[in-house]
């Protein structure tokens, strides 16, 4: 007798058709308006689904390929999904491929509730570094920055202004799971500046015309907020004039500027150099 969670009647739905309404809904999460409406998003791969559950993210639906049925980890994740009140779907690999738009899809994907941290709940403390991104546009840049923020031990990220969606499939893929551990807030410029004014933190803007070499700033003196500009336009004057420091990463060669995610990584690891050990 099969005693595994996957064997219990009523807890796993077997779906073979792409025209099934639940499958259609999951596929529709490729569009931002549908992610916004349902406040959900999709993540791919067993490891990332386990990471998300371990970090307390709320799962709504688990989808696994029929071939993965006997995998003990998949069974365990299915049991956790059921315990969390979620739906478990067993599908042929071709359905998973259509959901994830990949020829060689992962054997598992999960639909989770979106989660933002309220900006008012972010309180920079000594030794902490936050990143603020002005109107970030590129999903790959945003995902890479979230992953780098995680690796460098940043405490959170603020999306300022009209930004790309942190819950798009492309961004989620680029975060490699770090979306589940880095708090993300969003704000307009006024809200961001008010938040910053009410906190004892050093606002370090980055700009190609910055007067200060980024390596000369004392990042240990106070919690730091690194403010990075939009990929095309850089930081607007309204933000530049409110920075405590305007830093530049010296360059040689013919490139006008660094890619936003690369510049953020350079800044982050310098700002946290005194805190990071091998
Ligand atoms: N054309 C834009 C400009 O004139 O600012 C270039 C923007 S750059 C691709 C995106 C962001 O990365 C910049 O706004 C800045 O925050 C950061 N950045 C890139 N290279 C930098 C550098 N050498 N020094 C300081 N910040 C840099």
UniProtKB/TrEMBL annotation:
Keywords: Methyltransferase, Transferase. InterPro entries: Alpha/beta_knot_MTases, MRM3-like_sub_bind, Ribosomal_eL30-like_sf, rRNA_Methyltransferase, SpoU_MeTrfase, SpoU_subst-bd, tRNA_m1G_MTases_N. SMART domains: SpoU_sub_bind. GO terms for biological process: methylation. Residues 42-118 form the RNA 2-O ribose methyltransferase substrate binding domain. One of its GO terms (molecular function) is methyltransferase activity. Pfam families: MRM3-like_sub_bind, SpoU_methylase. Transmembrane segments: none annotated. The keyword Coiled coil does not apply. Belongs to the class IV-like SAM-binding methyltransferase superfamily. RNA methyltransferase TrmH family. This is RNA methyltransferase. It comes from Hoeflea poritis.
């Amino acid at each position: 007798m099969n005693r595994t969670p996957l064997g219990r009647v009523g807890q796993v739905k077997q779906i073979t058709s792409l025209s099934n309404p639940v499958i259609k809904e999951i596929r529709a999460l490729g569009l931002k308006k549908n992610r916004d409406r349902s406040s959900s998003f999709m993540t791919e791969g067993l490891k990332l689904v386990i990471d998300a559950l371990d970090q307390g993210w709320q799962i709504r639906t688990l989808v696994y390929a029929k071939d993965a049925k006997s995998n003990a980890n998949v069974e365990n994740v299915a049991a956790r999904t059921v315990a969390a009140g979620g739906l478990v779907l067993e599908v042929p690999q071709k359905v998973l491929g259509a959901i994830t738009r990949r020829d060689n899809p992962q054997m598992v994907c999960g639909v989770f509730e979106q989660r933002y941290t309220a900006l008012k709940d972010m309180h920079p403390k000594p030794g902490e570094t936050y990143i603020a991104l002005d109107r970030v546009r590129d999903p790959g840049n945003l995902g890479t920055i979230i992953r780098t923020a995680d690796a460098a031990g940043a405490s959170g990220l603020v999306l300022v202004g009209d930004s790309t969606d942190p819950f798009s499939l492309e961004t989620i893929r680029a975060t490699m799971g770090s979306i589940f551990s880095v708090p993300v807030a969003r704000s307009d410029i006024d809200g961001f500046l008010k938040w910053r004014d009410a906190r004892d933190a050093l606002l370090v803007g980055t700009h190609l015309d910055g007067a200060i070499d980024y390596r000369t700033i004392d990042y240990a003196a106070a919690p730091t907020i690194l403010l990075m500009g939009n990929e095309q336009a850089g930081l607007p004057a309204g933000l530049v004039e409110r920075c405590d420091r305007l830093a530049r990463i010296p360059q040689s060669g013919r490139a006008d500027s660094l890619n936003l995610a690369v510049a953020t990584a350079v800044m982050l690891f310098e700002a946290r150099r005194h805190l990071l050990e091998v």
